[in-house]
Amino acid sequence: MALAVAVGAGAGAGSVVFRWCIETFTRLLSGHADYAASPGADNPHVPWLGPCFVLLTPVIGGLLYGPLVNRFAKEARGHGVPEVMLAVAQRGGRISPKVAVVKTLASALCIGSGGSVGREGPIVQIGSALGSTLGRLSKAAEGRTKLLVACGAAGGIAATFNAPLAGVFFAMELILATFSAEAFGATVLASVTASIIGRASFGDNAFLNLPDFRVDHLSQYGLFAVLGVGAAAVGVGFSRFLYLIEDACDWLWRGPEWLRPAVGGLLLGLVLLALPEMYGVGYPVLQRATEGGYAVGFLLLLLAGKMLATSLTIGIGGSGGVFAPSLFIGAMLGSAYGIGVHHLLPRSAGAVGAYALVGMGAVFAGAARAPITAVVILFELTGEYSIILPLMLAIVLATATSRLLTRDTIYTLKLRRRGIDLEGPVPGARIGTQHVEAVMEPLPAPLPASTTLADAADLLSLSGHGALPVVDDAGHYTGVVTARAVAEALAERPDDAPTQVGQLAEAPAPVLADQPLAHALHALLSATGTGMPVLDAPRGKPVGWLSHQSALRAVHTFT
Q1: What is the pLDDT of residues 406-438, one digit of tens each?
Q2: SS3 for 465-522, per residue?
Q3: Other CB atoms within 10 A of residue 232 CB
């Protein structure tokens, strides 16, 4: 608990420093607190250049952060969250402490010089690096170090966006990819501590100031559902376009990596000159779009421009997040959609801003596939509870549609392109690359579904396994019954308790004989017993048994 509070305090202080750096570099390089609030204006430092100064700011920024990242922390390049996910999943939560310093400066310079990226990726990596460092200094066990990394991520999100709940769920849903009472408690402590520091520095204000929205007609739920499905396609398209541009930049660039952001900054400068609303994070433009301040054609132009500007910023070696661009793209899509349905159904469509808000959450859910985080963070960023039902509906549909369209999220796709599968075998590890059939045990004798609980208790106690497979009267596999389930049933009142194991059998996640052991271990970790059946792929029939003890035999098959 003390470590979680300390990490939260560090993440909160890091957020304050990071935002101060962004504002300072933005004022130095553009002459404005946020150039997106006055797009096309002159820079008061160099008024003779007029709006053309934006051609030079990305180049100047690239000359500063390019050598910094290339020399001290190459992992600070890009949007940061995938690196934290990788550190937790496969590297024991180890993140170099210098990442926090380099990421702060590099991302602040990138955003301040016009890079069209967000703040969430950098602050997640900064807070996580602080958590990892404190974990190592305190000689915490690997599991606790991973939890401190998640605490840093939660604190960073909470302080930066004044969203303590969103910080907790972001850390648990995306960084840890698991939920537990201990993880929830620790991330809450870190998030609350960081939020107190953030609110003391930035005030306790909602991120966006929007009027109250209401759903006046049931038909609007259908309109929001269609928006959720369409937003998923846009979110997935943004992910693919981001890495397409990155591939193109990799293919075109043949010079030293430290110079790449500066040379690529010339292209980014052209985009900013044509569409100055893309300068920096772009929150003022997002706010105006939710208020209905743009026509449909310009909203679609802003949507396409943001996808291009963000992809180009990342592709040339910039440092920044993709969460804020996802919100921006969703707001443009939702506003354009809202205006369109308002023209078609003026009496029942509702406010345009409601569609913008729902579009923000749905595009992020489609890109990142984190529905809980999307719902909570949109509620906290806007303070809008009146539209929670359509928001939840659209986000769930966007998540489901995204899963149908692609296997990866905007975060995991970056790792998979580097040959890293978070659920697959770790390169060089002694366990994980083998197939399940090479280490599985013989299948224990299954229990008929009609076996009484008293007989099942005797058989389980003598089997040496904490669970046994169950078959029906025809001999077909129906699931697994665990010793825990039988014990709990026997502890209930006889009138209310089940009487046969068939009533307690549950089918665990399928593990196939030809499956890599690394994938099977994820299913084994979530199993309620001490083992689970291995199925034959063609027929789905149990052919063996996998336990943690049998998985350890893979050490002797490692080559």
Answers
A1: 988 898 888 887 777 666 656 656 566 677 887
A2: CCEEEEECCCCCEEEEEEHHHHHHHHCCCCCCCCCEHHHCCECCCCCECCCEHHHHHH
A3: 28
